[in-house]
Amino acid sequence: MNFVMKQALGGATKDMGKMLGGEEEKDPDAQKKEEERQEALRQQEEERKAKYARMEAERENIRQGIRDKYGIKKKEEKEAEAAAAMEQASEGSLTRPKKAVPTGCGEEEEEESIVDTVMKFIPAPLMDMFNKK
């Protein structure tokens, strides 16, 4: 029966004992091999990280060259300048700085100017009708 099982499993005799509930064979150097394997994995991971750090540094140098060539600022620089401008504007203020209102939002003066502009294009007979009411 063992012969048939060995042939069916393709010679996987070490795992055979484990599958049938037998005891595992103890490897005297198993602990040492496992430590060496873990160390090799750690070393490979460090090499991989170093490689990608070098690649990213090269990319950043290329990006900086392009920024210098075309006068583009980094996002962090733009954000820092905007924050500095907001702090500078609110130095003497005790309240938080007001948000800028976009043009055309909520101002009545602009609504009146729009109405005046429309009224300019209405023919005179219709203007008289509006003025009588």
From TrEMBL:
UniProt KW keywords: Coiled coil, Cytoplasm, Exocytosis, Neurotransmitter transport, Synapse, Transport
Top-level taxon: Eukaryota
Region: Disordered, residue numbers: 1-58, 81-112
Keyword Lipoprotein: no
Listed GO biological process terms: regulation of neurotransmitter secretion; synaptic vesicle exocytosis
Any single Gene Ontology cellular-component annotation: perikaryon
Chief localization: cytoplasm
Molecular-function annotations in GO: syntaxin binding
Subcellular locations according to the entry: Cytoplasm, Cytosol; Perikaryon; Presynapse
Comp. bias (Basic and acidic residues): 15-58
Family: Belongs to the complexin/synaphin family.
Subunit (UniProt): Binds to the SNARE core complex containing SNAP25, VAMP2 and STX1A.
Protein name as catalogued: Complexin-1
